[in-house]
Amino acid sequence: xxxxxxxxxxxxxxxxxxxxxxxxxxxxxxxxxxxxxxxxxxxxxxxxxxxxxxxxxxxxxxxxxxxxxxxxxxxxxxxxxxxxxxxxxxxxxxxxxxxxxxxxxxxxxxxxxxxxxxxxxxxxxxxxxxxxxxxxxxxxxxxxxxxxxxxxxxxxxxxxxxxxxxxxxxxxxxxxxxxxxxxxxxxxxxxxxxxxxxxxxxxxxxxxxxxxxxxxxxxxxxxxxxxxxxxxxxxxxxxxxxxxxxxxxxxxxxxxxxxxxxxxxxxxxxxxxxxxxxxxxxxxxxxxxxxxxxxxxxxxxxxxxxxxxxxxxx
Length: 314
Fold this sequence. Notes:
- The structure is a single chain.
- By secondary structure, the protein is mainly alpha-helical.
- It is built from 14 helices and two strands; from the N terminus they run H-H-H-H-H-H-H-E-E-H-H-H-H-H-H-H.
- It has a two-stranded antiparallel ribbon.
- Strand 1 (157-158) and strand 2 form a beta hairpin.
- Helix 4 (80-106) packs across helix 9, helix 6 (120-131) crosses helix 8 (168-191) and helix 7 packs antiparallel against helix 14 (289-313).
């Protein structure tokens, strides 16, 4: 059985996609803990960007070293065209997405941020079907995404509206970050047709991380506390999340449809909510009846989109 046939089997791609979602979900509390350990204030956006840049620069080095070792050759952009793809991908996947993500996360709760990013499912399906036209928008995909999106609305709704407050720096930044992520997912699928996915992933992190570090530092961002052993662990773990999850996700995108994987990505808020509740003490928000019902809807959305795949394999 070749690599493509293995990675398109429902059990394999769903299991690997869920592992990626768990890692990404753990990033929400990890970043907030990192802010505390390194003394980064909520209003200090440039230090947040600097912190993010350090994470992604290290992640890129991890990916390139691991990929080069596995393929027994040094991975790097070998042509101008490949270098161009790295820079374009980096703009959306690292620089734009995570500049907004880190700022947004500083201005909202881990639970709320976890579910807000799941709007990328709608963005991904619409972009891949209506803008890039690399796949068709079926009723099944639309229904599954709609069910999951209803869950996102429910978890953010209260008597006084969308959580009581909607700020551009908080919720707005998280939503625009999700749009950038969705565009990057489609770009990865396109670029990986003629370029090595691991090479693209590693070097776009290195380039994007360097841009974020330079910009954050030049704008006045500083890391004023060392964070000790816990701080080192958090930075290394966050880098590992990016190195492992994005590389695996990129490989899965090469062999599977954007829509199918995007809806599995609705599990991000499930893991993000649970881990934020445990590590950030947001249990009251996470385990309210409203929020549990919302997470159930998210899971039903995933099942709806993948039901046809399971029936075909039987």
